[in-house]
Amino acid sequence: MLENKSNQHTSLSELGEFGLIAHLTEHFKIHHSTTLKAVGDDAAVIDQGTKQTLITTDLLVEGVHFDLSYMPLKHLGYKAVMVNLSDVYAMNGTAEQITVSIAVSNRFSLEALEELYAGIQLACNTYKVDLIGGDTTSSTKGMLLSITAIGAANKEDIVYRNGAKETDLLVVSGDLGAAYLGLQVLEREKQVFQVDPKNQPDLDNYTYLIERQLKPEARKDIPEMLKELNVKPTSMIDISDGLSSEIMHICSQSKVGCKVYEDKLPLDPQVISTCEEFELDSTMIALSGGEDYELLFTVPIADFDKIKGNPNFSIIGHITEESQGLNLVTRANQEIELKAQGWNAMKDS
Amino acid sequence: MLENKSNQHTSLSELGEFGLIAHLTEHFKIHHSTTLKAVGDDAAVIDQGTKQTLITTDLLVEGVHFDLSYMPLKHLGYKAVMVNLSDVYAMNGTAEQITVSIAVSNRFSLEALEELYAGIQLACNTYKVDLIGGDTTSSTKGMLLSITAIGAANKEDIVYRNGAKETDLLVVSGDLGAAYLGLQVLEREKQVFQVDPKNQPDLDNYTYLIERQLKPEARKDIPEMLKELNVKPTSMIDISDGLSSEIMHICSQSKVGCKVYEDKLPLDPQVISTCEEFELDSTMIALSGGEDYELLFTVPIADFDKIKGNPNFSIIGHITEESQGLNLVTRANQEIELKAQGWNAMKDS
Fold first, then answer.
1. I need a labelling partner for A308 at 20 to 30 A (CA). Which of A64, A82, B19, B266 fits?
2. What whole-number distance in Å separates Cα of residue B344 and Cα of residue B349?
3. Which chain A residues are within 8 Å of B49, Cβ to Cβ?
């Protein structure tokens, strides 16, 4: 157990979250043949014979991932579960169990934790998952939640990030950018409140945005719907860091390129009106907003008829050869390179 | 999602960690028949047909569970894995995978995290477990580690906390109290260093204690050894919070009492000499020290011949009827009530 005495000091923000995980875990060996997929997808996959077990985990830190000045604890509990279940659904699996660990400072009372657990319980009942364990401890500052979700899937049903093929359609569920704008609205109201605590905010124009930020729903229904439609995606990922960042994960792991059409990006009317109000580019918000917890997936072009016209799905582009790169076709029919400006939890460190 | 407006404010330390978990999770329903054991044992158990999956998770917070002024990061990584594997072995299972999530402030460099992961990797290679996932994020203060271990066991091999029967022998592996004393020695050296940074500590008399604190080993060998001896414990738990606290878990879940004999408690010579030096009662340290990561288990009295004389095991007492309570038989042959004064991470909050 010798120490590294080289005294180098590389700041973590230089690598970013994905680079950091890849760097730290690159020399780890796999000892068990049952470990089918380790680091690098929405969830890890463990072989159990005919069934596979999916494991995924997320850490939420007060002051980094959530702000309790506008995030009620019950919503936080609910959302923390959603973030994890979403990763299981992104593997085309069924979420069945969670563990919840929390670290809290002495600022929090028992009643505060009851609120948090009421949200966790609501999520468990709504999504039919069992709380099976966890750890509860004190922290020196603030609140931290660590949740692990355990899912199940038949071997042949699991969808990884690396199966996208040239000519596949690129499909997204729901709409994009609302959760990010909800956060902007809440941040603005927080600042107004700090200046004038008597001010009563009028949030009627932002109800959908705020709900998407404070009480997102994981898309449990999408894998079920795809099964009914007899469609098995060739690749899938959930949209936590922003659409363009997730597209890049699929394309790099599948060794393909893509074309995304700006005019196909699904936007809620509140997203459009609020982007105008905030003088933000709605395409930029849809591509980079993050926290949508929608599913992004690719399907063979032969499945076009099964997907088109379904209000749950938007076909936003298609997969191309790797050498063509990742491109956005603008409304003016210009091709520009797609860039990931997704939210990165390490950048703020 | 209504808020609880009752404005009650109950401090968390009033409940303690176990009371808190029990309170917060008491109304959670189980939705899946595959969830065999949820909260309340060393690990949760999920039914996978002939094999069962074991899941356990622990949260380690800087300033609460570890002090980086004397805990090298490589040791911390190693120990954090041990803490979790120990829970899997306490179910009589085999640990196969872990997830590791970390939150770190900008005080930590890439090289610091490389040290941490070098310790995690050493643990993975030594104990043959696969790192399959995790999350890496920034924190507003200090370092926090959340590890989940996944294990496997045949259904008939799993040992819970609730199977101890009257007349069963109470057995502990290894020896007790050394890790706690190691912490006391390190704390003392830290204070000496703060007064006189040039002072070179002489730790030769405490090497075993310090190793037990900084680089504990989980007892992977014990379930293997018991299998070879053809002994299946009736109950088992790992000693993380202190022997008496763990005995109380087994007795309350098994609805039994016990007698523990003071003169049977296994103590390393360094524990005895250091207790004298620190003017501490070695029995008290053995009962309440914590962080030993040994296994405590009960076996039918018929297995006495298989256990006695084995240097890995100490028979420290036996199980009695519940009404007789939990008792310590002192060297002077007096019976006194056994009390749990185990370390409680919530008390300091």
1. A82
2. 10
3. 48-49, 51
| Assigned token pair, B305 | 């011949």
Task: Look at the domain A169-337 and name its fold.
Answer: Phosphoribosyl-aminoimidazole Synthetase; Chain A, domain 2 (3.90.650)
Q: Provide, as residue numbers in chain B, all residues whose Cβ is less than 8 Å from the Cβ of A27.
A: 121
The structural architecture, per CATH, of the domain A12-157 is 2-Layer Sandwich (3.30)
B143 reaches A (C-beta below 8 A): no
A68 touches chain B (CB under 8 A): no
Interchain proximity A64–B101, CB inside 8 Å? no
ipTM computed for the complex: 0.88
DSSP string over A148-190: EEEEEEEGGG---SS---TTPEEEEES-SSHHHHHHHHHHHHH
Asked if B89 and B240 count as a contact pair (C-beta separation under 8 A), the reply is: no
d(CA A94, CA A150) in angstroms, rounded, equals: 9
Per-residue pLDDT tens over the stretch A203-257:
888 999 999 999 999 999 999 999 999 999 999 999 998 999 999 999 999 999 9
- Work out the minimum CA distance from A275 to partner chain B, whole angstroms: 28
- Residue position matching structure tokens 């300091």: B348
Model pTM score: 0.90
- Mean of the per-residue pLDDT values of chain A: 90
* Residue of B59, B64, B70, B215 best to disrupt the A interface, most CBs of A under 10 A: B59
